[in-house]
Structure formats: structure tokens, C-alpha cells
Design goal:
Helix 2 packs antiparallel against helix 3 (about 130-140). This protein has helices at about 1-20, 70-80, 130-140, and strands spanning about 30-35, 40-45, 50-55, 65, 105-110, 115, 120. It is built from 3 helices and 7 strands; from the N terminus they run αββββαβββα. The chain is α+β, with helices and mostly antiparallel strands. Strands 1, 2, 3, 4, 5, 6 and 7 form a 7-stranded antiparallel sheet that branches.
Length: about 140
């Protein structure tokens, strides 16, 4: 009986801890911003909706659309693998933005009432740890 109880508790506790380690995109807000003097783009993802704004002042009309189920599942998979606490320490792989060869970009994540933000990196050249999710986020703007 003790053996059965130990096996049951091991499985039960193992499963509950496993579910707590993954980030939940449904309760998060992702904001990707890229800008230079003549270019501005902000892509916000929240609750299976993507909003794209190209007006820096906020006066222009932002375009909001629903994310397809396939794209949402892909985003969820990428988001679950991100270590949010490490976002501020990620290093940009290139420095093109310094000589105006690329737009400045960053990724902000609001999750469980905490804000996480990357350091600036080149638009189109994100740090490797977030490359898949940033590329997916940018794919929504390419379709518009």
C-alpha cells in the first residue's frame, strides 16, 4: 500500500510541477517595437489578437486581427520556451542599428503583473533565444 501511495504521489506531484514551469501566453501581452527616424512599427499580441500600428504618435488607426488557431499554437509553443527573467540580459547578435543600417527593436512582455524587456537589438536580427517568436510576430506585419 505504501508503494502504491508513493507512486501515485510522485506522478501527481510531478505533473503539477510540470504545468507550473511553462509560460501561459493567454495571460500575457507581447509588444514588439521597431523604429528609426523614418520608420515605426509596433506589434502587440494579446489574447489571440494581433494589433499593428505604424503611427508613432498613436493618433493613427491600429489594425487588429484575430490570430489563426495554427499560428496561435505556434506562438504558444515559442512563448513556453522563453526564460522571461533572462530577457534583459540577452545580447544582440549584430550592431547595424548603431550606423543606421537597421531599425532599433525590442520585445516587451507583460506576464503576471511583471514587465520584462529586452535590450535594443537590430530589427530582423533578434537574439537567438527569442528568434523564433520574434520572427513569428514579424510575420503578422508582413501579411498586412
Amino acid at each position: 500500500m505504501k508503494l502504491f501511495t508513493m507512486i501515485f504521489l510522485s506522478i501527481f506531484l510531478g505533473k503539477s510541477c510540470e504545468g507550473q514551469t511553462k509560460n501561459d501566453l493567454k495571460t500575457a501581452v507581447l509588444e514588439y517595437t521597431a523604429n528609426t527616424r523614418g520608420f515605426y512599427q509596433k506589434i502587440t499580441i494579446q489574447d489571440q489578437m494581433v494589433t499593428i500600428s505604424k503611427d508613432r504618435s498613436g493618433n493613427g488607426k491600429a489594425i487588429a486581427t484575430k490570430i489563426s488557431e495554427k499560428d496561435w499554437k505556434e506562438l504558444v509553443g515559442y512563448f513556453e520556451t522563453i526564460e522571461l527573467k533572462s530577457l534583459p540580459t540577452l545580447k544582440a547578435p549584430t550592431q547595424k542599428r548603431i550606423v543606421d543600417a537597421a531599425a532599433f527593436a525590442d520585445l516587451k512582455v507583460t506576464y503576471k503583473d511583471k514587465k520584462y524587456q529586452t535590450a535594443a537589438f537590430d530589427h530582423g536580427y533578434p537574439p537567438e533565444a527569442i528568434k523564433k517568436i520574434v520572427d513569428k510576430i514579424n510575420s503578422f506585419a508582413k501579411n498586412k
